[in-house]
């Protein structure tokens, strides 16, 4: 269809305006990256750096030479991996059970799930529960409260509701019990949903901050987000990032490098899970 002159002008105006908005949105990320790779001496000389004359890895080398910072990355990785696996196991199994009409007490359990969406106990009851379970200063104090949520269970239940019951009936005829059906039939068909929710869980655990500050009293167990908060707020990192380096880079370049290091690992997860988002869950699974 041929566009009129007014339509072409309107489209070009939209392109220009959206391009300007995109550049304004992208510039803070670009600035963080540039400053983190800028040579410390050049940063101290210039008020604003758009493109550095001399690139340097001094800030990254300084941070990664700090045992405290490296250990925080390990803590975040542990929370993201173990927490995501546990959350997927609990959320998907509960959602699948609630999607099966033959399950006894299904309506009562569904009511409890809905109540958790409408009402939250708050910080103090949660802290008292974690303390009574003797989980203070334990990684499980962060993982257990975030294992699942009513909203995630309902979304996964909607996905499992779309799975045809004929698949389970055919598997049962072949001699599979409920666990075999769950492991061999349901989970392989649920990879797109599990990949999406796994990404949500991983991002949540990787970015955990408040619960870590609340429940982890030992600073050596802090995840990277807590360390990043200390670096960003404190004018001087002090003994937090003690290292063998004799010359310490400027605090601002350390802040920018810490932001990049804390952001890149979770961004690298997206390309590996992207293929599961577009893949159909039931393509070719049922005929007739």
Automatic annotation (TrEMBL):
User: Which family does this protein fall into?
Assistant: Belongs to the binding-protein-dependent transport system permease family.
- Primary location group: membrane
Instruction: Tell me the compartments it is located in.
Output: Cell membrane
| UniProt keyword list | Cell membrane, Membrane, Transmembrane, Transmembrane helix, Transport
Residue stretches making up the ABC transmembrane type-1 domain: 73-273
Q: What membrane topology does the UniProt entry give?
A: Multi-pass membrane protein
What is the protein name for this chain? Carbohydrate ABC transporter permease
By its UniProt entry, which PROSITE patterns does this protein fall under? ABC_TM1
InterPro entries in the record: MetI-like, MetI-like_sf
Q: Which GO terms describe its cellular component?
A: plasma membrane
Pfam families on file: BPD_transp_1
Give TM segment ranges.
Answer: 12-33, 77-96, 108-127, 139-160, 181-206, 254-273
* Biological processes annotated in GO: transmembrane transport
Gene3D superfamilies referenced in this protein's UniProt entry, alphabetically: MetI-like (1.10.3720.10)
């Amino acid at each position: 269809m041929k566009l009129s002159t007014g339509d072409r002008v309107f489209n070009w105006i939209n392109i220009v305006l959206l391009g300007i908005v995109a550049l304004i949105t992208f510039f803070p990320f670009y600035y963080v990256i540039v400053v983190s790779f800028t040579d410390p001496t050049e940063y101290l000389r210039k008020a604003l750096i758009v493109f550095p004359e001399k690139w340097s890895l001094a800030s990254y080398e300084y941070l990664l030479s700090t045992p405290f910072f490296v250990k925080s990355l390990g803590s975040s990785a542990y929370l993201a991996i173990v927490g995501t696996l546990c959350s997927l196991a609990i959320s998907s199994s509960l959602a699948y059970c609630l999607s099966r009409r033959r399950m006894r007490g299904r309506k009562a359990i569904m009511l409890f799930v809905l109540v958790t969406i409408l009402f939250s106990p708050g910080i103090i009851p949660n802290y008292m529960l974690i303390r009574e379970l003797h989980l203070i200063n334990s990684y499980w104090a962060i993982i257990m409260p975030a294992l699942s949520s009513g909203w995630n269970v309902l979304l996964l239940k909607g996905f499992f509701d779309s799975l045809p019951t004929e698949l389970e009936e055919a598997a049962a005829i072949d001699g599979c019990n409920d666990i075999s059906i769950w492991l061999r039939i349901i989970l392989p068909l649920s990879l797109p949903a599990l990949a999406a929710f796994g990404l949500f869980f991983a991002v949540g655990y990787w970015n955990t901050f408040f619960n870590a500050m609340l429940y982890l009293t030992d600073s050596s167990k802090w995840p990277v987000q807590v360390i990043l908060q200390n670096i960003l707020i404190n004018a001087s990192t002090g003994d937090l990032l003690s290292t063998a380096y004799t010359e310490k880079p400027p605090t601002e370049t350390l802040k920018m490098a810490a932001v990049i290091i804390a952001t890149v690992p979770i961004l690298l997860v997206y390309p590996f899970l992207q293929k599961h988002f577009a893949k159909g869950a039931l393509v070719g699974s049922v005929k007739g």
